Amino acid sequence: MTVIDTDPGIDDAIGILLAFASPNFTIAGITTVAGNIGIETTTRNASRLLAFAGREDIPVVRGAAAPLSRVGPEPLNLHGTDGIGGVALPHPVRLPDDRQAVKWLADFLMEQPAGIVDVLALGPLTNLARLVLEQPEAARRIGRIIAMGGAIHEHGNVGPRSEFNLWADPEAAAVVVASGLPLVLIPLDVTRRVRATREFVEALSASGKPMPAKVANLIESYFEGEANRESRPLHDPCVMLYALSPQLFRIEELRLSVDTGNGELAGALTISPEGTPVQVALGVDGPAALDLLARHLTTIEASASRRESSTS
């Protein structure tokens, strides 16, 4: 059973639609967090993705609007003013759950057998950190967290050694890493090896099915320009791809700590004997990962997708 914690986000949206398309995921809920863009937009985008996929049975729960103890980042321009590159999606059908994400997560985890709920974390780790701090008994019932975040040997994307999700709330990342909860980290070292080609996008579009066609639109908005033959890295879908096929990834256990300073290394990961053991993906079979993404999108019929005439 899976909960997706997310700040959609173009690549978040691709990962979420992959999870909808695959029978391997039983999605219990989507919790939102501010990150790529503000909380109102990330929550609305999550609800719009559910409306497109005809999955209004899944609750969306509004989460943290700001980091634990610092000012939140400015919205990322590469995701557009709507957070998803201007790709058309229907209006939300179902209102978000009345509870806040931490309360909903705690209630849900306490209702389930310990260890059966995985959290796929695609954005800053604020909601999970608050769960650890405020509801530790519930947090200990999580089976594992698979989180996109960090950079180990790669240069960062918001600083010399800092990746956006951890940089956006370093204190939250430090809480989650130090918690000792089962954690698999998918850093830039892996996600930069998973990029779509123009031919890949064309193949998705040619499938004639709504779900892969929409993912093709999202990936198309993730190319930097017409001349580029490869997209920006498909960061967040790598979380779902790892959950589906961990054998495609090379995992090492590293002892990590998170820099919580205010300088250019905020959110940076350090390997040291004093760090907490974390399972970290350091390699991936990129072509096989893309093939897995395409197979799950094109071999499963999308359920009750909305017609384009109903999109906003």
Automatic annotation (TrEMBL):
It is an enzyme of class 3 (hydrolase). GO terms for molecular function: purine nucleosidase activity. Its EC number is 3.2.-.-, 3.2.2.1. Pfam families: IU_nuc_hydro. The keyword Hydrolase applies. GO terms for biological process: purine nucleoside catabolic process. This is Purine nucleosidase/pyrimidine-specific ribonucleoside hydrolase. SUPFAM superfamilies: Nucleoside hydrolase. Residues 3-289 form the Inosine/uridine-preferring nucleoside hydrolase domain. InterPro entries: Inosine/uridine_hydrolase_dom, IUNH, Ribo_hydro-like. GO terms for cellular component: cytosol. Keywords: Glycosidase, Hydrolase. The keyword Nuclease does not apply. Gene3D superfamilies: Ribonucleoside hydrolase-like.
